[in-house]
Description:
139 residues, alpha+beta, two-stranded antiparallel ribbon, 47% helix
Amino acid sequence: MSITQILDIASTGMAAQRLRVQLIAANIANSETTRTKEGGPYRRKDAVFASQDLGFAGALANAGVRVAGVKTSQEPFLTRYEPGHPDADPDGVVSYPNVNPVEEMVNLTEASRAYEANIAVVRAAKAMASSALDILRVQ
């Protein structure tokens, strides 16, 4: 496997995790949004990953990762009794997004670590390429 292929694989991982972080940020930002343009509270979104064929020959043909789609959660909304709220139903119950900020922070930590792991791969590939060039210069 070449250094370029290693960098291609790592870059797909970083791009996928970047989108995941963007979705997590949107989830946290909308954790109290009770009214959207679609109607009703905001629904939590999450990235769905799939392997990506990068066109390499051999066993690592599906070595990359891509975002296959964005899944909108169908979990039930959280409800609170707030009769004075403008979005309260006739019983005074308000539906809030199905976003758990603690779960989102755990997901953010996981995405951040996965992104950092891909950065480590890029740094290692860079160091290997630099070492190979140093060996060629000595000879």
